[in-house]
Amino acid sequence: MNEDNKLGEVVIEGLSKSFDQITVLEEIDLKVKRTETLSLLGPSGCGKTTLLRTIAGLEQPEKGHISVSGRVVFSETISVPPEKRKIGMVFQDAALFPHMSISENIGYGIRKKISKEKKVAELLEFVGLPGFGDRRPHTLSGGQKQRVALARALAPEPSVLLLDEPFSNLDSTLRVEIRSEVNQLLTNLEITTIFVTHDQDEAFVLGNRVAVMREGRLIQIDPPHDLYRQPVDGWVAGFVGDANIFPFNKSVNSVCSTPIGEIPVLKVADNPSGILIRPEELKISEGNDGIVEIVEYYGHDAMVLIRLKDGTLIKARTPAVSNCQRGDQVSVSYVGMGAALL
Ligand code: ATP
């Protein structure tokens, strides 16, 4: 494969990094395909930002290899400075230069003077802010600042874009709006993007694939649907969605027994310990399997917590129109396509 075919590809091998003798990244292997958007998802402090910063060249790992577009940017003997890696980065807080106009902020990384004005105008148009060029950052809303930060990161025409929780400082409505906009922009751009978040919805909406990180390690890398349906363990199952996990005893002919009866298994696994059933795979009807303890109403649907006769507490998602109430006697049946074994 020649270098052009690798444009935008990011390959990380055996990457380790520690701060003050505490390991923050441990033997990270990751390959991000060209034009792919990869979400890096994990709880606070698991090392997501550190991984992004090492790719950008803002942190020096102790060990490993990083190549961008087929070119080694970090190894035992090589460390290419951040500005030469052809990587654009957008941070949590936009980090615009306050004393510069919006146009100057965006134009900061463009070297060619002749085409600079035209390019800045194109980028302002692209992020939906035409006519904002002469304004100063403090006159912009949080969402507008993030769009300018994105335009500034794109200005030098990087082959890879790194986004570090770019929506985390926005209120929840704006966050969803900007997320949709950025999703559309990234789809149109066809640029390789690594997007850090601790929000599962965001990771699923934006990522073609999601890499789940825990305590400095990558635990699972899969498309959102596979991650949700077949998480590698109970921790991942719970991190990417609501989960009922029952202890696994045995399965006979791909059917296993659970507190809500016999359930088909999605795929046979080696030595499983748990059975995963998502709340939307359960249906509630009148009956005497258990009693409703709590109803959480979300508008689009509701989550119902049911105490079964054997004491197990389970979660079932019901349509918002269902009039299930605390104290109701109910039956629970499985309506999914097969449970994952963990
Ligand atoms: P968050 O979602 O909260 O931003 P994160 O997953 O991005 O978290 P990192 O910011 O990469 O996590 O931090 C991982 C660990 O490394 C944390 O324990 C953090 O305190 C530590 N750490 C990060 N940067 C430094 C530094 N410059 N010096 C010392 N420790 C650091």
What does this molecule look like?
It is globular, with a radius of gyration of 24 Å. With 342 residues, it is of the alpha+beta class. It is built from eight helices and 20 strands. The protein starts with 9 loop residues before the first strand and ends with a strand. It folds into two domains: 232 residues, P-loop containing nucleotide triphosphate hydrolases (Rossmann fold); 97 residues, OB fold (Dihydrolipoamide Acetyltransferase, E2P) (Beta Barrel), CATH 2.40.50.140. A six-stranded mixed β-sheet has the order 6-7-8-3-9-10, sandwiched between helices. Helix 3 packs across helix 4. Adenosine-5'-triphosphate binds next to helix 1.
State the strand order across the main sheet. 6-7-8-3-9-10
- Which percent range describes the beta-strand content? 35-45%
Total number of helices: 8
Classify the fold: give the CATH topology of the largest domain. Rossmann fold
What do we call the CATH homologous superfamily of the largest domain? Answer: P-loop containing nucleotide triphosphate hydrolases
Mean pLDDT: 92
- What sequence of helices (H) and strands (E) makes up the elements? EEEHEEEHHHEHEHEEHHEEEEEEEEEE
CATH class of the largest domain: Alpha Beta
Structural class: alpha+beta
The distinct ligands, each listed once, are: adenosine-5'-triphosphate
- Largest β sheet strand count, sense and barrel closure: 6 strands, mixed
